[in-house]
Amino acid sequence: MKATLVIKNIDNLITLKGENRARKGKEQGEIGLIKNGVVAVKDKEIIYVGEGELPESIEVDASTEVIDGKGKTVTPGLIDSHTHLVHGGSREHEFKLKLEGVDYLDILASGGGIHSTVEATREASFDDLYKRAEKSLKTMLSFGVTTVESKSGYGIGDFDTELRQIEVSEKLNEDYPSDIISTFMGAHAVPEEYEGRSDEFVDVLINEMMPKVIEKTNVKFNDVFCEEGVFTVDQSRKILLAGKEQGLIPKMHADEIVSLGGAELAAEVGCISAEHLMAASDQGIDDMAKSGTIAVLLPGTSFNLQKGTIAPARKMIEKNVPVAISTDYNPGSCPSENLQFMMTLGSLTLKMTPAEVITSVTINAAAALDVENEKGSLQKGKRADISIFDTPNLEYMIYHFGINHTDKVIKDGKVVWNKENNRG
Description:
By secondary structure, the protein is an alpha/beta fold. The chain contains 15 helices and 18 strands. Strands 8-9-10-11-12-13-14-15 form an 8-stranded parallel beta sheet. Strands 3-2-7-16-17-18 form a 6-stranded mixed beta sheet, with no helix packed on it. A 4-stranded mixed beta sheet has the order 5-4-1-6, with no helix packed on it. Helix 4 packs across helix 5, helix 6 packs parallel to helix 7 and helix 8 runs parallel beside helix 9.
């Protein structure tokens, strides 16, 4: 078999080899490290991963692209499993108010906060949203990210805006060398016009918006913000179960601020993931461990909000809950596309080891997006999504923060970004 691309002499090849499933407990720190590694690709597929030289059965000729991995760390393409990629506007004008100690609810009451983003997103054209999101995707790709989850949720009751967000994500998925996986999050907040009548909005969401989104798009997941003052546990259950009946895989924003029982509900409903979880209860963590629900933790949001609360990652890992880390890229609580920085925060603030962290942005993130059979590890038969970092080892990459360590990014067997010219 002839290889179309080979990476040889790899000092640190992190394969995440093993079963195609989320890793939990002790195995979250088992990363399949190979010294002096080699990877061979044919077209879009990995055909060999091992140590030393390629076997004679794999042919290399003048047409094969050969990359020297000496001094490099090679990993599966990173996966950002929780973002609000498509949105209008930005909220830097609120930064000074936050520094002055103005409460978020006061900012919200003055037309800021999520209301500001909703207004900007509703007013933005398809092209405006596309160009802004494409710019963020380019930044994400430069950090080694080859797959991104993209949530709607800034229509807040306006179906056309929700639909436009998802359509932008799907067009980017067609046009751009990254995979974008869409999540419907019509239940991001209760519209102002439904204040005091949130149950009515839940019915509209389930019976009118959800069927139309499914009909008009390829959306895969259904997400709800289960939080005090947003959607109750009962309302969230109703929304998630209705989505399951209509073919959508459930996800949840759970227990971000108040321990409301979101983690317990995620386990009860069978959510593929529960996200945020800074206030998750011990019972909720135990329930998630039993259900296999993946905890998608967002340390950049905790860092930016400066509330002094972090998700209990160590407790989750010790109790066998699979943990993923993501950026939560959005214009309000985490305006950053830098997954490498989130990896550093995963170690410094969540107290995860570098090995646990790399697992959290590869195979566990893939499992949180239901793509673990094709992505998230470097193994024969999987998609050739590979990130090459100019670091002597994984620990250096996380320890030396604040810069971009990416050397090259390979998507579907082709170099699509390199540091020499910032493109493929």
